[in-house]
Every structure is written in structure tokens, then in C-alpha cells.
Amino acid sequence: MPFGKYSGRILIDLPEEYLLWFNKKGFPSGELGELLKLCLTLKIEGLDSLVKPLKRKL
Fold it and tell me: InterPro entries under this entry (predicted)?
């Protein structure tokens, strides 16, 4: 996440509540907004565990 309370965090690791807040208030425009929408969908559908193994080890 490039800004805010969760700056520096990998998008899939953002709390669902934070993504729901964006859904209510409006996602940022562009690629970031699209990726945040995708992360929310994955979390709502319970599919975020499929993405986590693909994360780079930091």
C-alpha cells in the first residue's frame, strides 16, 4: 500500500475492514483502485489464501 495507515503493506494483507471502507468511500482511480477491488473480492469469496503463497518472501 503506497499511502495511509497501512503504507508499505502488501495489498492482499490489508484488513478486509479497510477494503470495505474504500468500497464505501470510493477506491482510488487507476491500477491501485482496481487491485484493491480485486483484493476485496478475493477476501469476500475466501480466496485470499490462494494468493498468499505467490507473495515474494521479504
Answer: QSregVF_b
